[in-house]
Amino acid sequence: MRISFTEHPASVGETYFGHMFSALSFCAKMTVALMACLVHAFLPFLFEKTGSQMITCLMDDMVHHRDKRTDAPNEDANRAEKAA
């Protein structure tokens, strides 16, 4: 098994440290969503939609922003090809 600290971050258009910051940011946001869901479990009148809204936002950020980052180099290459 080969271990690479840069292969996966590069595959999603990030540097190692950029990917680390992004992953830690998602971790913090998921922790807040977890706490909201935990409170909601015991006090159902609180945070009725907070957890699901936060998870939806995280999914949008992770999938849609990643698509934009990984598509950007291809778009630049396509523009260069058309210009040539």
Please, could you describe this protein's structure?
It is elongated, with a radius of gyration of 18 Å. It has one domain (7-83). It has 3 helices and no strands. It has helices at residues 7-11, 16-42, 50-83. 79% of the residues lie in helices and 0% in strands.
What's the quick description here?
By secondary structure, this protein is mainly alpha-helical.
Q: Could you list some keywords that capture this structure?
A:
84 residues; mainly alpha; 3 helices; 79% helix; 0% strand; elongated
Number of strands: 0
Inertia-based shape: elongated
* Percent range for β-strand residues: under 5%
Give unreliable regions as ranges.
76-80
Q: If you average the pLDDT, what whole number results?
A: 81
Range of helix content: over 70%
Radius of gyration, taken over Cα atoms and rounded to an integer in Å: 18 Å
Kindly name the structural category.
Answer: mainly alpha
Gap from first CA to last CA: 41 Å
Sheet with most strands: none
Give the number of domains.
Answer: 1
* SSE topology string: HHH
Number of helices: 3
